[in-house]
Amino acid sequence: MLLKPKLHRLQQPAFAQARRMLFAQLVRELRHTMQLSQEKFADELGMTFATINRWKNGRATPSALALKQIDTLLNQLSQSPDARLRERSRAIREKYFLKREVNV
Q1: pLDDT at position 59 over 50
Q2: What is the pLDDT of residues 2-56, one digit of tens each?
Q3: Quick one: CA dihedral 36, 65, 73, 28, positive or negative?
Q4: How far apart, in whole angstroms, are the C-alpha atoms of residue 1 and residue 11?
Q5: Fold held by 15-100
Q6: pTM beyond cutoff 0.85
Q7: Among candidate residues 90, 20, 96, 27, the one with its CA nearest the CA of residue 38
Q8: pLDDT on residue 58
Q9: What's 58's DSSP letter?
């Protein structure tokens, strides 16, 4: 099973702003769930504060590597002993990521 952001299908320039705003919402929800400042969230992902700030303000979108790191973080949270974190991380994953079956 691969996880890809649902927004990957929005490729036309007219949708660029919508894509950035949806990623901004993803970052805000995840930070809120983890109860982290932008600085701590950036550290958690191995990113800079400036990068997280650009995402949050809709001025940029995460790279493929950053999305993979966010996915890994959500996966870790979904294994948490804290039921609230487990449920919130699963809800975020369902809201922002598309599940695809991979036939091998």
Answers
A1: yes
A2: 455 555 554 566 577 888 888 999 999 999 999 999 999 999 999 999 999 999 9
A3: positive
A4: 23
A5: 434 Repressor (Amino-terminal Domain) (1.10.260)
A6: no
A7: 27
A8: 86
A9: T
Token pair in block for residue 33: 């769930």
Residue 93 identity = R
Token pair listed for 49:
């504060």
The H or E element spanning position 10 is: none
Tell me the pLDDT tens digit for each residue of 65-88.
998 999 899 999 999 999 999 999
Range list of β-strands (E), 1-104:
2-5, 97-100
Going from the C-alpha of 90 to that of each of 49, 80, 97, the distances in angstroms are: 25, 11, 10
Residue 45: both structure tokens together: 């992902």
Structure tokens at 93: 């994953």
Helix, strand, coil percent content, the chain, rounded in steps of 5: 70, 10, 25
Report domain extents, the chain. Answer: 15-100
